[in-house]
Structures are given as C-alpha cells and as structure tokens.
Amino acid sequence: MxxxxxxxxxxxxxxxxxxxxxxxxPLVAASGCYNRxxxxxxxxxxxxxxxxxxxxxxxxxxxxxxxxxxxxTPAGMLNAIGLQGPGIEYFLTxxxxxxxxxPTAIIASVAGFSVAExxxxxxxxxGLPNVVAIELDVSCPNVDREGECFAADPDSTAAVVAAVKExxxxxxxxxxxxNVADIKPIALAAQSAGADAVSLINAVRGMAVDVTAARPVLxxxxxxxxxxxxRPIAVNAVWEAAKVLRIPIIGMGGIETxxxxxxxxxxxxTAVAIGTANFRDPLVPLRVLRDIEKEAERRKLSxxxxxxxxxxxxxxxxxxxx
Amino acid sequence: MxxxxxxxxxxxxxxxxxxxxxxxxPLVAASGCYNRxxxxxxxxxxxxxxxxxxxxxxxxxxxxxxxxxxxxTPAGMLNAIGLQGPGIEYFLTxxxxxxxxxPTAIIASVAGFSVAExxxxxxxxxGLPNVVAIELDVSCPNVDREGECFAADPDSTAAVVAAVKExxxxxxxxxxxxNVADIKPIALAAQSAGADAVSLINAVRGMAVDVTAARPVLxxxxxxxxxxxxRPIAVNAVWEAAKVLRIPIIGMGGIETxxxxxxxxxxxxTAVAIGTANFRDPLVPLRVLRDIEKEAERRKLSxxxxxxxxxxxxxxxxxxxx
Amino acid sequence: MPAHQQSLEDATLVSREFIAPGFWHLGxxxxxxxxxxxxxxxxxxxxPGDFAVRLPLGIWTADGDTLSLLFRxxxxxxxxxxxxxxxxxxxxxxxxxxxxxxxxxxxxxTIVAGGLGIVPFWLLAKExxxxxxxxxxxxxxxxxxLLVGVDTLRELGITIATCTDDGSDGTQGNVIDLLRARPKPxxxxxxxxxxxxxxxxxxxxxxxxxxxxSMEETFxxxxxxxxxxxxxxxxxxxxxxxxxxxxxxxxxYDLARVCIDGTVFQAADVLWQR
Amino acid sequence: MPAHQQSLEDATLVSREFIAPGFWHLGxxxxxxxxxxxxxxxxxxxxPGDFAVRLPLGIWTADGDTLSLLFRxxxxxxxxxxxxxxxxxxxxxxxxxxxxxxxxxxxxxTIVAGGLGIVPFWLLAKExxxxxxxxxxxxxxxxxxLLVGVDTLRELGITIATCTDDGSDGTQGNVIDLLRARPKPxxxxxxxxxxxxxxxxxxxxxxxxxxxxSMEETFxxxxxxxxxxxxxxxxxxxxxxxxxxxxxxxxxYDLARVCIDGTVFQAADVLWQR
Lengths: 322, 322, 274, 274
Ligand SMILES: Cc1cc2nc3c(=O)[nH]c(=O)nc-3n(C[C@H](O)[C@H](O)[C@H](O)COP(=O)(O)OP(=O)(O)OC[C@H]3O[C@@H](n4cnc5c(N)ncnc54)[C@H](O)[C@@H]3O)c2cc1C
Ligand SMILES: Cc1cc2nc3c(=O)[nH]c(=O)nc-3n(C[C@H](O)[C@H](O)[C@H](O)COP(=O)(O)OP(=O)(O)OC[C@H]3O[C@@H](n4cnc5c(N)ncnc54)[C@H](O)[C@@H]3O)c2cc1C
Ligand SMILES: Cc1cc2nc3c(=O)[nH]c(=O)nc-3n(C[C@H](O)[C@H](O)[C@H](O)COP(=O)(O)O)c2cc1C
Ligand SMILES: Cc1cc2nc3c(=O)[nH]c(=O)nc-3n(C[C@H](O)[C@H](O)[C@H](O)COP(=O)(O)O)c2cc1C
Ligand code: FES
Ligand code: FES
What we know:
The complex is a heterotetramer, with two copies of chain A and two copies of chain C.
Chain A: E1 16-18, E2 21-23, E3 27-29, E4 51-53, E5 70-73, E6 76-79, H1 87-95, E7 105-111, H2 115-125, E8 131-137, H3 154-167, E9 172-175, H4 184-192, E10 197-200, E11 204-207, E12 209-210, E13 215-216, E14 222-226, H5 231-244, E15 249-252, H6 258-267, E16 271-274, H7 277-280, H8 284-298
Parallel strand pairs in A: 3-4, 3-16, 4-7, 7-8, 8-9, 9-10, 10-15, 15-16
Antiparallel strand pairs in A: 1-2, 5-6, 6-14, 11-14, 12-13
Chain C: E1 7-20, E2 23-29, H1 31-34, E3 42-46, E4 55-58, E5 62-63, E6 66-72, H2 76-82, E7 89-96, E8 108-114, H3 121-131, E9 134-141, H4 150-154, E10 160-164, E11 171-172, H5 175-180, E12 188-191, H6 194-207, E13 211-214, E14 230-234, E15 253-257, E16 264-266
Parallel strand pairs in C: 8-9, 8-12, 9-10, 10-11, 12-13
Antiparallel strand pairs in C: 1-2, 1-7, 2-6, 3-4, 3-7, 5-6, 13-16, 14-15
The structure holds flavin-adenine dinucleotide (2 copies), flavin mononucleotide (FMN) (2 copies) and FE2/S2 (inorganic) cluster (FES) (2 copies).
C-alpha cells in the first residue's frame, strides 16, 4: 500500500460539511470513476477520500452504449458509457449490503429519465449503510420534456430536486452540466427547490473523429469530456455559481494536483471531486490532500474550510455556512 | 525561411469555396492570433495559409482589458484581450492600405456591441483590397439586449447577420460561440438570415485561479479557452451544425496537426482555422496542409474538398455546395 | 491470487530498438512488475505529454528485473512513447488483467496469433517450456512487414508456422486456414484483431476445442472502474464479471470488463453480437 | 535590424545545474540563437508536456554555440523544464525582443537588478567590457537565498554591490536605497519585479538620468500577435509600438507589446498607471 513521503500528521482541521453530512476531508471520488474503491485498494487506500460517490444508478438495468465508449483526447478523455448499470433492484439486493464495510463515507448517485424515476430511485437509497448524501445526475435527457437534458433547464432541474427532497431525508446534491449558456439560473433553481449542495461540473459534451476509419471514435458519436482539459471551464462554473448560491459547491473537472484543487476551493467550492485523475495516478487523493493542508498551513489557517472562496469577492461578505 | 522536407508539389486540388470566395487551400489563420502575418514572416511564409482572418475590429478604439490578459492552461490557454483595437477609422486610414500587399487572401473580422455597430463597421470593410469575406464575431455582449452575448441567442445572431448582409456584397461568415446548450438553432438562424458560412468555434469560457496570490489569474476574471484542450468540444459543434446546415463551416479549436484538421473536415467542415497552435509552432500551416494532402492522396481523392463530411452520415445525402 | 498483486512502479527505459517501420521494442527496468508478469498481462503506461489516461500495452518479455514492450505507432501516445530517450523514467501500473492458464493435464497446445497478437505468447511459451509441454505456434499477418516478434519467439527454440494474406511470408492465407489444414488441437490460445478472434472462436467452439483468447478494447482506467471496455459474455461463465449484469429478464449475458475480468476469456463464453 | 533575425531551432540540453533551492541553470546548444543573442533578449521554449504556448525565458549567457538559462521553478512549465534530462531536444524560438543599447558616448553606467532581474546583465556586462566602459552593478533581493547569478557575474571581473531586505547578504535595504546613497549615475539599466522597476523609473525620471528597463508580463504568443502582454507607453516615444494605438482623443499613450516592442523600454516612456 502506497503512502507519500513527508505526509505528516494533519495539523489542521480538514473536515467539511455538505448540508448535514460531515466529511472527514474535502476530497470526493467522482461518480463513475471509482466504483466502491475496491479496484484501487491494491494500490492506494480508498479511505484517503472523504467520500466516494457511487456510479449513478437508474431504475432499470441498462447495458449502456456500444463500444468503443472511451477515447483519449489532449489532456483529457471522452466517455460515453451510457449509464450502464444493474438497476436499483439488483443494486439493493446484491451491492448495497457491502456498503456497510465501505472504506469511507458514501454518496449515492441517481440518474433518471423522468422526475418520477429520480424520486423513486432516490427514495430507496435513503438510509443505506454509510450513505451520507444523495447526488442527482440531472445531466441525462428528460423524457417528460422531449429528451432535453434536465440540467439544461432551471424548471426541470428544480422539479427533480423538489420531488427527491420530498422523499428523502439525506442531503441532496444536484450535479449540473456545463453545457449551458449560463449556469447561474440552473444552480439557483436547484437551491430554491431545496438542494443542499450542487456538484459542478459533469463532463463537457465533445467528440473525436477517427481519421483513419473516417468515423466518430465513439460508437455513440458524442461523449463527455473530462480531465485537465476542462479545468478552466469547471473553475469558471464554480466561480459563477458561487456568486449567487448560499449552499455549498462540490467542484470538479480535471483536478490532478493540490494546486488544481485549490483553484476550485478558492473559487468557492467547499469540497472537490476527482475522477479521471485516479486513472493516471491512483495516489492522487494522498498528494492533493497533503498539498491542500500545506497551503492552509502556509496561510496560517486552522481549517481547510477557510480556503473556500479565498479568491472570490462574494465571500468577503458571506458568513459561516460553508 | 523554413520549409518542410518532403513536402512535394501538391498533386491534388486544395481549393475550397466559402460562399463566393475561393481560397487556394482550406487553412485559415484564426482571428486575433496572426495580425496580418508580418510577425510570423521571419520564421514562415504566411502565404502558407489560404486566408488570414484579421483581429476583430470595432467601431470605436478600445484599450482592451487590464493585464494579465493571458494564462497557460493544460493543453490550452486563456485569453481576455477584450477586443483591444484602434477602431474602424484608424484601421481604414492607417492599416487597410497595407492589405494591398497582403501575402494571401484576407478575411476581415468585425465585432460590435449593437446590431447597428456591426452593420456600420462591416459596410466599411466591403471592397478593401484582398478582403474576400467578412467574419462577424458575434460572441460579444449585446448592449441592445442587456449585455447577453449575441451568439447565445438565435434572434440576436440573425439580426446581426441580416443587418450586415443588407450592407455588404462580400460573403458573410458568422462566428459562433460554443457557450450554448445547443449550437444548431443558432447556426440555423445565421443561415436563414443569409450567412454564407459559419465559423465554429470561438474560445470556450473559462478561468484560472492563481493559488499563490488567491485571486483570478486574469484581471478580467474569465477568458476564452483555446488550444488542443477544446478540440473535442469544437469537433462536436461542427458535427452538430453540419447535421442541419447547407452553408459551409469553417472549423477551429485546438488544431495542431494534420490529423486534427482532418477531424474537422471529416466532421463536416469545408475549411479549418488555426489560432493558438501558431504560437507554439509557426510552421503549423505547412505541416497541416502537407498531411491533409497526403490523406486525400491515400484515399485517392482528387480534391481536398472531397474530405468534407467523410465521417458524417448527413453528407452521404448532400451534394455539391461544399 | 497473484494476478491481483499490482504495483505502481517508476520504471527506467533501458533499451529502445526500432524493429521494423512503425514497430518498436522497449526494455524497461521494473523489478516488481517484471517479477510477477504472467502471459497476457499488461502494463498501463503513463506516457509523458498531454495524456490524461494511461496507455495499456501487453508485456512481451519479462526476465529478471526487466520487462519489454513490443508495439506499433498507432497514434499520438504510441508515437510519443517511441521517441523517449533511454534513461527516461516512466510510471507503470501492473501487471494488470488475468492470465492464460496452463492446464497441468495438457498434452499439447496451439498458439494462434495475428500481427501484434503475438505479444502475450513469449511468456506463455516460456511457461510451456518450463512445464515441458509441446507447443505449436501459428502467426499470421496481412504481409511480411507486419510480422514482428517471430524471430524472438524462434530464439526460444520454438517452431513457428507463418502465413500472410499476400503470401509475402510463409503460407499464403490466414491463420484459420492453417489451423484447418492441421490435426485438431487439444487446446488453443489466441490473440489478434477482432475479426480473427471471432473466426477462431467459431472454429474452436464448433469443434469443441477448449480455447482461451486475449481480447483488446480501448481502455479508460485500465482498472475496472470506468466500464469503458466491456464485452458481452455468457451468463454464469468462468469470468468473475462483477456488476453490472445485463438485465436478467431480457438477455442471457453479463458485460465483462476486458481490463480486469480479462483480457483472457474462454472462447465458449464470449458473445460476439449484442 | 539584427533583433529581427530569429530562428526556430531544435536545441540540445547540454547541462543542467541546480544552483539553489528552486533555481536552475540550463545549458543549451543552439548555435543560431546563441550566435545572435543580445542583452535582454529571450527565447520562447516549447516545453514538452501538455503546454499549448511557449515559455519565455531570458538569455543569461551566450558563448559560441551555447546559451544558458537561469530560472526559478515558478509553476508547472518551469517545474517540467527543470526536470528534463540532459540530451533532451527542445524547440527554441529566438532571440526575441529588442535589446539594451550601449551608447557609444557613455562614460559609465549602473546596472540595477532585482532577484532574477539579473538575467539580462551577463550579456550587457560583456558588451561593456568589450567597449571598455565602466560599469557598476547593484543586485538586490528579499533575502540571500534569492540572490542568484551574482557569482557568475563576478567571474567576469565585475564589482557587485548586493543588498537584501532582511540583511542576510550585503547591505540591508533595497536597490533604490543603495542607488540613492551613491553619486548620480550617467545611465541606468534596470530589470526586476514591477514594484522595483516602478521605483527605479521614478528615481531616474526625477533626476533626469537616462534609464532603460527590461519588463516582464505573462506572454501568450511571444511574437507580437496576441496582444496579451501590453504596457502603456507615452505616445510618440522611441518604441515602434505598431497598432493598435490608444484612442487619440482620450489618452496620451499607446499600448506597446512587451514581447516584441520591448522587453526594453525607456523609463521616461513607461506609464505606470492607466
Ligand atoms: C490490454 C491491451 C494490450 C495492448 N497491447 C498492445 C501491444 O502490446 N502492442 C501494441 O502495439 N498495442 C497494444 N495495445 C493497443 C494499444 O493500446 C492501442 O492501439 C492504443 O490505442 C494506441 O494508442 P495511441 O494513442 O498511440 O493511438 P490512438 O490515438 O488511440 O489511435 C490512433 C489510430 O490508430 C487506430 N488504432 C489504435 N489502436 C488500434 C489497434 N489496436 N488496432 C487497429 N487500429 C488501431 C485508431 O483507430 C486510430 O485511427 C493493447 C491494448 C490493450 C487494451
Ligand atoms: C521576456 C520574459 C523573460 C523571462 N525570463 C525569465 C528568466 O530568465 N528566468 C525566470 O525564472 N523567469 C523568467 N520569466 C518569467 C517566466 O516566464 C514566468 O514566471 C512564467 O510564468 C513561469 O511559468 P510557469 O508555468 O512555470 O509558472 P506559472 O504557472 O505561470 O506561475 C505559477 C505561479 O507563479 C507565479 N509567478 C509566475 N511567474 C512569476 C513571476 N515572474 N514573478 C512572480 N510570480 C510569478 C504565478 O502568479 C503563479 O502563482 C520571463 C518572462 C518573460 C515574459
Ligand atoms: C468514465 C466516466 C464515467 C462517468 N460516469 C458518471 C456517472 O455515472 N454519473 C455522474 O454524475 N458523472 C459521471 N462522470 C463524470 C464525473 O463524475 C466528473 O463529473 C467528470 O469526469 C469531471 O471530473 P474529472 O475531470 O475529474 O474526471 C463520469 C466520468 C467518467 C470519466
Ligand atoms: C489571443 C487570442 C485572441 C483572439 N481574438 C479573437 C478575436 O478578436 N475575434 C475572434 O473572432 N476570435 C478571436 N480569438 C478566437 C480564435 O480566433 C479561435 O476561434 C479560438 O482561439 C479557437 O481556435 P484555436 O484553438 O486554434 O486557437 C482569439 C483567440 C486567441 C487565442
Ligand atoms: S478500462 Fe475502465 S473498466 Fe476497463
Ligand atoms: S505575447 Fe502575444 S503579443 Fe506579446
């Protein structure tokens, strides 16, 4: 099991709050990138993360898209997994029990194609062992509204959040898409509907062409771009949302180093999620946490939470909640 | 003056058409990245480009944004130049005459903050020496409509294009922003309003935080992300627009190699523009053109134009115009 | 289970050999991974440059503290890898994936490789030599210049039949033609392009010959967590596919991950059409 | 004009020296650029990795076919550069920018450098030595560990006065304090952080001492085409600023590009506030 040289005892308080959930540190393994951590356990202790977000679960089993489903791109990758998954029934029977021995806090993730589906699946996640919050992947097409993506529209986003909030007691996190002209109205709609936090950002729509074969690389044609390439887009989304929100933000998109994570925290995020970078360097949570702690120390801060919004003018006037 | 080893005589027809304009090859130097080519002439012959798009010109002189205005990012850069420029009067008196000795065809670029400003500036560009088309940078905030970006809205985009078309005889190219949920309605609005082509894409909104100073790197906070990082986003925009458009597309965003340019052509672009890559490798147009020609040869095509849309199902049913 | 002992190791590039146009052979000092590498296992290489995901490459030879890679310049990552100077430090993750198994009862086996599908077989050949079991090897490619690694395998003292589509080396024809022309094998191992593997599976399944194939897909994580590399396999087969399963009501298969449930699958378990 | 003879050159890294924590000295064989480098000129380096724009670094020494760079690990690009093995090929574009000028009539001059602002002065000192003109050098930094390159400059046989904010080397105080304590110089050259340069310009302008400063900004293109690196300068000054000019009606200045109109500006021409 790998550890990092020079990572001394934490001298500062790394805990953060996401609604009523307390995470031991602000690092979250992003949905769809970490399973429950078991595959990584051979190289790194997944307990390095303050929480692990599960792959999004749908009502029905889904086979996902045809192959190829992933493609490397400059400083990033495209994926079009297509929400492959066993569906909520199988998940509850065969997988949820194992959450009792999860290495760290778990955030369940729900995806759906109608408001009712979100609410029904989320309700069944409430109260599972070690699950401290529920994230809603509202970046899928809304079949109630002609297939437009939920998170492209404030009303659809609000409808999902409100319906879920009615059914669950855990904190609810709305995960928004960057494929919009302005993230602020969507984030505000989520907040008004009762979201306890927002996750920013899901992958950015993109595609690649295989010029030898003269066809799209992905069988699904387009996919989601993740990795360092999208970091400036993601930091901007967090910054914009932080202008208008009271609820905490979980920032993500291309985090590979402590410096990258600090960009998000200083732009207004309370926690950060790491996805693609785990594939390149499984030790990434150790490095990032060590470097965040160092920065807090350098600034003579006693908590990591105090880094939130340091670069953001809005935070000069805000108080406590984050 | 550098040339490339092994770049033999073109054996295939590299010419392309953008409306009534004929370019000797499909490579265009992107707006804001090449001036008129003079600075590059010490290292490479700017005539390698089929056309050079000038930096966008506004009605009034503009000082642009405060410094810093650029920042490196993973596989890209951010810029927030802020349309610095001498304004149309100065341009016409002091700079336009030199266009008579331009190394290749020139595409003038116009930016404005109202429909009237676009039309007035574009009208004065019509008929300048060597200028073969006019590109409209509709990615600036629209003061007529509460500062929303023109290209975020189909109607604003159409209004600009229509107003300009009434005043100029040269082909008009609408340059659209990727910062929208769906590029198709905007591209269609430009086409219906009479645009002869669209340029896709302008830089993607992003930002970076200087974590040492705990403030945004750019004085303007956010800027435009360009370079290889955005290529999958740009290729996707071209692919989407090509589904619905009849007019040609100039594709751009992160092109550094022939393979990159081929992605755009095969996704449906008739020409491609290169911006940021000139900064890293001034020889980029030579390399890209050679490799595009090689690919056309490998496929036994007699024209580069025949590469357009090769990967795109819509092109199987389309004819001639591109 | 030895296949699950993996390391994240900083390897040193110790040799770099151009073997044919577009083909390279790299030697890497990587004691932990080399010491544990099994046939059909691979490493995930963090190529320096603007790459956010690792590149999976099969382990060709492994001897003492050194392993080697045999690869083609396919695209940007392999081109970059081919140009790194000796002395470069490269982060490797491995050995990854399961292995070809060598049944102790085997009387003999036939290896069928297409092009770079030869990669997993140097280690397998060594295992067979150690076990003293007879092995015959068939390697095919489109043409002579795409037949690489054959000499290295011959150096082990193994007899190899080659074939090419254009007859530029060995018999003219493909590996299945060659296989058909021989006595029915007891056991087959296969690796190569999808079309070849598919034909090989039909061949083996029709004749009820046990056959193990090593498959390839574009990988994202190489670790089993992104679900980017799935292949449909018969439900209830050998592979511990983990979740998610195909919907029980509609399809009689699971989606297995090539990167971690494979790369080795039983020919009888792989379903070629969805 | 020699400053305009630029090359795109594949240079070889021939030496790599750690000179103080975070500071590095690299030697590069780059005959075309080294042969033409002038004081205050720079190279734009294409750092291998995920970087879309070149990194500008001042030319420290240039001797025969080799030039050297003296730099600090500021961030990702300089960190990467510091870790490249000797033997690496690096694409350089240069020499870029204008140069310090050495008036033939000069009786003597004073160099004022802050921290890494020492970089342009090795080449300038050589020029002065060749011309046989007296030179005095003042170098300051926050503390001793940030004073780099001083020994190399002393090796040319030049007397150097140092100062540090904390008194850990030389006089305690800043370079302007030192300058004030001396007889009025005939000519000043300056390079260093913005605050120092600004103070230096006030000092020189108030006393009507001719003063040339080499400035720094974050660069995009390093070629004069992206307008990412501008500084306001007095209208009608020496610098050929090219377009675009500031609006004639409202402001009495032009925006000059540091990368190509500079990096050297006359202290009397630079406008520090907009
Ligand atoms: C487990 C595993 C083991 C592997 N072992 C080896 C090995 O030992 N040696 C080796 O050379 N490769 C091996 N590969 C294949 C290699 O990982 C891929 O070819 C990879 O895509 C090359 O990356 P790239 O960035 O250089 O090219 P890419 O940019 O990914 O591809 C460039 C172009 O090449 C085409 N292409 C890429 N790979 C292939 C392929 N395998 N077959 C046909 N066309 C292709 C693409 O369609 C594209 O047009 C292995 C793959 C896996 C999953
Ligand atoms: C013409 C020119 C010549 C130069 N010559 C040299 C040289 O000879 N030696 C040298 O060491 N540098 C030199 N620089 C500065 C160097 O190019 C920049 O510092 C560059 O930003 C470093 O890139 P990076 O990617 O490593 O760091 P970045 O990622 O750009 O910066 C990382 C962090 O360091 C801070 N930072 C970066 N640069 C500076 C700076 N110069 N001063 C204070 N804080 C900074 C940033 O604010 C940021 O917090 C020169 C710059 C120019 C324009
Ligand atoms: C292979 C892969 C699968 C993903 N699956 C999901 C998913 O099921 N639900 C979800 O909300 N986000 C999913 N994401 C998005 C990530 O959680 C994250 O928002 C995005 O990748 C940006 O972060 P990164 O750059 O650190 O990877 C997936 C990302 C990847 C790369
Ligand atoms: C420094 C800089 C300045 C730019 N200025 C303009 C501009 O004035 N008008 C415009 O339409 N696009 C401008 N662009 C956008 C480019 O023309 C191009 O659309 C974008 O950079 C994507 O291409 P690239 O990745 O090849 O650079 C600018 C881009 C850069 C990097
Ligand atoms: S490559 Fe990620 S699961 Fe196989
Ligand atoms: S850095 Fe581009 S103009 Fe100076």
